[in-house]
Write a structure and sequence with these properties.
45% helix, globular, DNA-binding, two-stranded parallel sheet, mainly alpha, Arc Repressor Mutant, subunit A, 130 residues, 6 helices
Amino acid sequence: MADSPMSFNQQVYALVRRIPAGRVLSYGRVALLLGVPRGARSVGWALGSLTGPEPEVPWHRVVNAQGRISIKGSPDVAARQRAKLEAEGVVFDDNDTIAMNKFLWQPSALDVEAIIQHARDQARGGENDG
DNA sequence: CAATTGACTTGAT
DNA sequence: TATCAAGCCAATT
């Protein structure tokens, strides 16, 4: 029945979940990998919907293109993000910035597509695509 | 359907 | 290098 693809929101979660520990991704990069080169804001919006006590999505592995934490309105959440990243080995520069050239996750297009396909399959409730 | 919002990004000054 | 403004997309109301 689920002819409609899962919401952009779901795609974001699916991809973010595949971000390995110790690596980070930028909002714009996530959007780009999902096929929306200008959907950076939507990615942040999607992650903002999480901010739960214990979300199953490593939202903390997503930062802005500058490699800095961009969370607003909740300094506590921002602090938690940094703490989680540092706990995974991510190093912050003297300017509270992450070296994107070192910690940026760079999956291949095939990997990303496989992630989306798999996520879609789950969204269908285990139905085959046919 | 139209208007508003937001954890972004890029270009110009 | 730092600051300001405009563009973009999806969800919410």
